[in-house]
Amino acid sequence: MCGQKLPIRALLSSIKMHLLFSPEIKLWWVLLVLFAVVSKQQCYPDNGNTESQVPCYFIFGDSLADSGNNNHLQTLAKANYSPYGIDFPDGPTGRFCNGRTIVDIIAEKLGFENFIPPFATATGTDIVSGVNYASGSAGIRDETGQQQGQRIPFNKQLRNHQITVSRLIDIIGNNESTSLYLSKCLYSVGMGSNDYINNYFLPQYYPTSHEYTLEQFTGLLLEEYKQQLRTLYEYGARKIAVFGLGQIGCTPDAVHTYGTHGSACVVIMNNASQLFNSRLKPAVDQLNNDLTDAKFIYIDFYGIAGDNGFKVDNIGCCQVEEGGLCNPNIPPCPNRTEYVFWDSFHPTEAYNVFLAERSFSASNDFYVYPFDIRNLVSFNQGAAASK
Ligand SMILES: *[C@@H]1O[C@H](CO)[C@@H](O)[C@H](O)[C@H]1NC(C)=O
Ligand SMILES: *[C@@H]1O[C@H](CO)[C@@H](O)[C@H](O)[C@H]1NC(C)=O
Ligand SMILES: CC(=O)N[C@H]1CO[C@H](CO)[C@@H](O)[C@@H]1O
């Protein structure tokens, strides 16, 4: 496949295809269409419809989206060994899953030929289709996850994105065209789980639960998160999907570590998720009100989770070691499509498909606000700004 290794002429034409209607390059129109036809014939001889719905997809997050950024870091939060990747075409890559993560599946639905490359290894023109900055154990707060070792907190992921933007300006050769290009891309952000799991609920390592009530801590998280999302906007993002927290009290690790006192899940941790989500939704409203040429959407993973029909939702498919990640020496369960959890924290590919489908094209509006990713990518910002 040549999707990430296009020759430079085809690459530029693919960038310019997405800028077709920008006035300054109208003159190039005919020439570019020619280029696009040529490049398509060279690249995708057997596939009729390969145009992605957006030119690029930038991914911010934690282990639910990490695709290899932690591989070279000194941390316990790594998944670049078997049986991780047992159902992934390239085997173990650093994904905390047996197969594709939710953002991989979203990229496929958008029509990308290749998975979005991790920042750690993306070079040259790889970055034009987007970059994945996600890092296992990372959080909104910089200190989150530090008991595991190195990680890339959201603040650092944003600085890495700034580096990508300047590389893109070099490739595209023009600041304004780059801004236009970046405004057409999809951005997804899923942070916050670790600020509870690998911070607030670990009083032996972090002082936060002594210093703040759950409400206060959640308030601080949301203040910081809103600021970070504004920074993403300042770097040119205009179509941003924000993932709410899932039921963090239902992971096999939470149940094992904290006990449930008769409930199915750890109630206080699920309360934390709900509190976070209940503040995130109005934050999305506020961002949409303040930044009228952008569109933020909120995806309710907590609600979606309540609706699943999986047979096994309380134990992971692989045998785990003490930290809750898979034991490399024991074969995982064979019937992976029947499990919600792959290890003690992370969903199986089958469950990721379930989440991605309901985020991408929702059959109703219960869990997407104000609409789904499919509508976000086709959203016309010009129309929104002139309202
Ligand atoms: C969780 O939230 C419910 C509903 O708000 C509340 O009644 C309950 O006391 C909370 N439980 C814990 C352990 O915080
Ligand atoms: C999955 O396979 C394992 C091992 O064969 C078996 O013990 C388990 O009951 C199966 N689970 C389901 C839900 O079929
Ligand atoms: C993509 C990008 O860097 N755009 C910049 C172009 O220049 C203006 C003004 O200097 C900046 O505000 C943009 O951020």
From TrEMBL:
Record GO terms (molecular function):
hydrolase activity, acting on ester bonds
Subcellular location(s) per record: Secreted
Listed GO biological process terms: lipid catabolic process
- Tell me the InterPro entries matching this sequence: GDSL (IPR001087), GDSL_esterase/lipase (IPR051238), SGNH_hydro_sf (IPR036514), SGNH_plant_lipase-like (IPR035669)
Q: Which cellular component terms (GO) are annotated to the entry?
A: extracellular region
> Where does this chain mainly localize?
secreted
Keywords, alphabetical:
Hydrolase, Lipid degradation, Lipid metabolism, Secreted, Signal
Signal sequence span is 1-43
- Domain of life, per UniProt, equals Eukaryota
Cross-referenced SUPFAM superfamilies, in alphabetical order? SGNH hydrolase
Family per record: Belongs to the 'GDSL' lipolytic enzyme family.
Against PANTHER family, the record matches this protein to: GDSL-LIKE LIPASE/ACYLHYDROLASE-RELATED, GDSL-LIKE LIPASE_ACYLHYDROLASE
How is this protein named in the record? Answer: Uncharacterized protein
